[in-house]
Design brief:
87% of the residues lie in helices and 0% in strands. The protein is rod-shaped.
């Protein structure tokens, strides 16, 4: 009887071992699927983080490029405005001089023409309009001075103060506004 029970125990042991093997295989498959799902989620999260970092880096680069462009524009405007102001001052000196120097007038008018063109390149439009008026006034003053006018130096000085100077003051205010309107003025890193 013990032998019969032992013979019956073998198939039962084999059957139990099979069930255990199937259960282990099922658990392994489920663990493998769970690991794949976790790996996929980790991959997606890492990809999202990488994309967010990339977008953030691009935004920082765009911001830096904008700051550099603003800085360049501010420097370019400032330089061109100084050149134009120097050209207007040169016209004033030629206009108020005791003796007429035709070559000096021609040089001054060429300089103011070139400076006006440069201001047209860097703007703004309002400032360019004021500068164009001043250039025309300098041309008119040259015509008056070179046409053998008999105006005294005192009358030329009055003309400058009464007619031209207000436009120069307006130009100075427009330049100040153009240079101070930049967003960079608030940036202490400049």
């Amino acid at each position: 009887m013990a032998a019969i029970l032992a013979l019956l125990g073998i198939p039962a042991s084999v059957l139990i071992a099979r069930w255990q093997m199937r259960s282990t295989l099922r658990q392994t498959e489920e663990a493998s699927r769970a690991a794949l799902v976790i790996a996929e989620l980790n991959y997606r999260n890492a990809l999202e983080v990488a994309e967010a970092n990339h977008r953030s880096a691009l935004e920082v680069m765009r911001g830096q490029a904008d700051v550099e462009r603003e800085r360049w524009l501010l420097e370019a405007r400032s330089a061109q405005y100084r050149l134009f102001q120097g050209a207007v001052a040169r016209c004033r000196r030629s206009y108020l001089a005791q003796e007429i120097d035709v070559e000096e007038w021609e040089d001054a008018l060429d300089e103011i023409h070139e400076a006006l063109y440069a201001i047209g390149e860097v703007g703004p439009e309002e400032l360019y309009g004021i500068a164009a008026r001043l250039k025309r006034m300098c041309g008119t003053m040259a015509d008056m001075r070179l046409a053998l006018d008999s105006n005294s130096q005192a009358s030329r000085a009055r003309y400058w103060e009464d007619v031209v100077r207000p436009h120069r003051v307006e130009l100075n205010q427009a330049i100040s506004s153009a240079l101070n309107s930049s967003d960079l003025r608030g940036n202490r890193d400049l």
